[in-house]
Design brief:
4-stranded antiparallel sheet; 2 domains; elongated; 4 strands; alpha+beta; 10 helices; binds protoporphyrin IX containing FE
Amino acid sequence: MTNLFEFLNSSVGKKWLMALTGLFLSLFLIVHVSGNLALFKDDGGLAFNQYTVFMTTFPPIKIISYLLYATIIIHAINGFYLVAKNMKARPVKYEGKKNNTGTTWASRNMGILGTILLIFIATHLIHFWYEYKFGEMDWKTYVVEATTDNVLKEEVITAADAKAQNLKPATMDYMGNKIIICKNLYGVVETAFKDPLVVAFYVISMLGLSYHLLHGFQSAFQTLSLRGKNYEGLIKGIGTFVFAIIIPALFAAMPIYFLTR
Ligand code: HEM
C-alpha cells in the first residue's frame, strides 16, 4: 500500500493517475452521450426521464457515480499540479512566434482546456444534477400503451403539488396500459436550452472538450506505454473521430436541437 502511494506521488505515478482517471472519464462520456440521445426522441421526454430515474436509483450506478465525482476531482487537482510543475521547470516561453517545438496546440494548452471543462462541469452540475437531486422541479405522469410504449396521455404535476403529495418515481399497471410517474428533468433541459447564451456556452465548451480529448485520449495510451506500433493508428483514429469529433458534436447538437426546433 505504501509502495502504491509512493508511486502515485512520483512524477511517473502522477502521469499514470492522469491517464487512468482521464480514460475513466472518457468511458463516462460514452455512457453519458448515449443515454442523452433519448433527448432527441419525440415522446414528451418519457425515455429521457425514465433513463434519469434508472441512473439515479439503480444501486451499482449510484456507486459508480461517487467514483466519478472523485475521479473528476483527482483529475483536476493532479492536472493543475502537473501544469504548475511544467511552468516552473520552463518559466521562459518558447522563443519566436512560430511553434517549432514539434508539439500540437492542444497538447500545449491542456491546462487551459481542462480549466474551461472544469468551469463547464461545475456550471452543468448546478444546472441539471443539483436541480434533479435537491431542487424543486415539476413531475410528469404518462399513460403509456403497454405493448407499444406509445404515450397516450401526459400531464405535468407542479413542483408544489408533487411535494404536497410526496410523490416517488413509479410505474403501475392501469387497465392494460402503464402509468409512469417521474421527475420532469426533460423539462428542465428543454427550458435551459431555450436561452441562446446557455446554448453558446455549451457549444464553446464542447469545442474545448474536443481539443482536450484530441490530445488527452492518445496521450493516456502513450503514458501507459500501450501505444505500440500495431495499435498506434487505431488509437489515433478512435481519439480523433470518436472522442474529438463524434462525442463533442453529439453533445453540442443537443442544446442546438432545443434552441432551433
Ligand atoms: C450538452 C449535452 C449534455 C446534456 C444535455 C447533459 C445533461 C445532463 C443531465 C440532465 C444530468 C443530470 C442527470 C444525470 O445524472 O444523468 C447530467 C449529469 C452529469 N453530466 Fe451532463 N450533459 C451534457 C454534457 C456533459 C458533458 C460534456 C460532460 C463532461 C465533460 C458532462 C458531465 C456530467 C456529469 C459529471 C454529470 C453527473 C453524473 C452523475 O451524477 O452520475 N455532461 N448531464
